[in-house]
Amino acid sequence: MQNIKGILFDMDGVLADSEPVILKAAILALKEYGVNAEKKDFIPFIGAGEDKFVGGVAEFHNVKYKKEMKERAYDIFDEIVESELVKYEKIPETLNTLKRSGNKLALCTSADLRKVKSLLPVIGLPFNIFDIILSGNDIKNKKPDPEIFNTACMKLNLKNENCVVIEDAINGIKAAKAAKCKVIAVTTSFKEEVLKNYNPDAIVDKTFKIIDYINK
User: Fold this and answer.
1) CB within 8 A of 37, min separation 6: which ones?
2) Is there a catalytic annotation at residue 205?
3) Strand partners, 8
4) Rounded-to-integer distance, Cα 99 and Cα 131, Å
5) In the predicted model, is pLDDT for residue 1 greater than 80?
6) How sure is the predictor about 206, in pLDDT bands with cuts at 50, 70 and 90?
7) What is the average per-residue pLDDT within 180-202?
């Protein structure tokens, strides 16, 4: 990929296998509100932030969404993340390599800042490895709206076409394409044949392999 100067990372499913953890937390939280949710119920809401992830499923089961449902899910997430998180290979090393190469790095997640603060230390990533961090608290319109990526490019003082987004979710890929950024998809949440339908610039099976494309 030519002329890449900024790398915009999604968090869940890109920097760690955190989606099974928040899924478990959301199922347990919703159960306290009388919602017997299943894994498949959450698929349409992956990558859209926890208001949609939790709220969309609650409403699918005809239960009115309350913000306290999300907060309860985050409470449970905080309790279990350290013991249940599966870490991806070479994540700190990969980000350090990209930063040393002169790239600007941004974290662009639809999740709340509360979740970012819980997750990054468990992954082993200091906050200051990112030039900017944008969470769902900073954005009005969540993915698949391109607002988060447009905002990141502006704050990095880079043109959108000089930034590549690293995403695992369909909603995130749609947002990146709408922002006219390049996008590398990771097959951690959806299979390659599904991701191909959304025309990413490249597809990898492990996040650390993005270096092979960015350095080309």
Assistant:
1) 26, 27, 30, 31, 57, 61
2) no
3) 106, 165
4) 10
5) no
6) very high
7) 96
Question: Over the stretch 93-129, which tens digit does the pLDDT of each residue have?
Answer: 999 999 999 999 999 998 889 989 999 999 999 999 9
Q: What are phi and psi of 122, to 5 degrees?
A: -70, -35
Exactly one of 10, 51, 112, 145 is catalytic; which is it? Answer: 10
**pLDDT at position 53, please?**
85
201 labelled catalytic: no
Of residues 12, 51, 145, 168, which has the active-site annotation?
12
